[in-house]
Amino acid sequence: MNPSDIKFVIQKKYGEIAQQSLIREKTSCCGTSGCCGESEFSMIGDEYINVKGHNADADLGLGCGIPTQFANIKEGDSVLDLGSGAGNDCFVARAIVGETGKVTGIDFTDAMTEKARANNAKLGFTNVEFIQGDIEEMPLPDNAFDVVISNCVLNLVPDKQKAFREIFRVLKPGGHFCVSDVVIKGTLPEKLQKDAEMYAGCVSGASNMDDYLEIIHNQGFKNIVIHKEKVISIPENVLDNYLSKEEIVSLTNGDTGIISVTVSAKK
User: How do the domains of the chain map onto residue ranges?
Assistant: First the structure.
């Protein structure tokens, strides 16, 4: 698929998830439409229940980490959340920045943006805003944010160099980002890489880990730190839809792996 087709698939899939209003039921990155077959898998490995600012209405279970845990956000900071979804990470960040800070969420999907705004209206925060936009070309000014966060989103972006270039642009001098994302160790089987639904499920869009870190470095970031890694296990009955038995063995014995990783770096 070309980048436009990929973006269309992602926008359609996450629009469906938003419209289904799965408020209190955790879902996989695939949503509930069955793109992973009857045995859907959830890649989220970290629970927000005891995290200050967590909002159940805004938590659709679409993340692969808790980037705010390592983001070193301070009271009064201006924070940008990429792929903000229904707003959960923004509300967690708002609990940290307080009344004197500001939190902006940007999402590619209109339905998600509307849902986040509705959630914010219930909470009454005047220093949290949600905008619709493309992470590769953000409608935001240069040097505007102290911290950029993201949760299981950048792996979906077709041009990750553009995305990280944009992060660099909107960060203030000395600012930093902290993102949780999905990366690949080794080489993901071609059938998984090419399948559109698995792409929207946060798997096939993932980069090789070394390539991912190189992209970050090449955009000018420094002090790159990997805070956390966690193996993502996909049930064999799901993999059966895409791979041969030999490919499944290779994927599950450690030669190739799909992992969630939380990374930070400084401008």
Answer: 3-18+56-266
In angstroms, the CA 75 to CA 182 distance is 29
CA dihedral sign of residues 56, 98, 72, 109: positive
In terms of pTM, does the model score above 0.85?
Answer: no
Q: HEC string of the chain?
A: CCHHHHHHHHHHHHHHHHHCCCCCCCCECCECCCCCCCCCCCCCCCCCCCCCCCCHHHCCCCCCCCHHHCCCCCCCCEEEEECCCCCHHHHHHHHHHCCCCEEEEEECCHHHHHHHHHHHHHHCCCCEEEEECECCECCCCCCCEEEEEEECCHHHCCCHHHHHHHHHHHEEEEEEEEEEEEEEECCCCHHHHHCHHHHHCCCCCCEEHHHHHHHHHHCCCEEEEEEEEEECCCCHHHHCCCCCHHHHHHHHCCCCEEEEEEEEEEC
C-alpha distances (whole Å) from 185 to each of 16, 41, 86, 233 are 30, 20, 30, 13
CATH class of the domain whose range is 3-18+56-266: alpha beta
Q: How far from 53 is each of 7, 56, 162, 181, CA to CA, in Å? A: 30, 10, 31, 21
Condensed to tens digits (0 to 9), the pLDDT of residues 207-253 reads 889 999 999 999 999 999 999 988 777 767 777 877 788 877 777 66
216 vs 160: CA distance, rounded Å: 9
Per-residue pLDDT tens for 159-203?
999 999 999 999 999 999 999 988 888 877 777 666 655 555 556
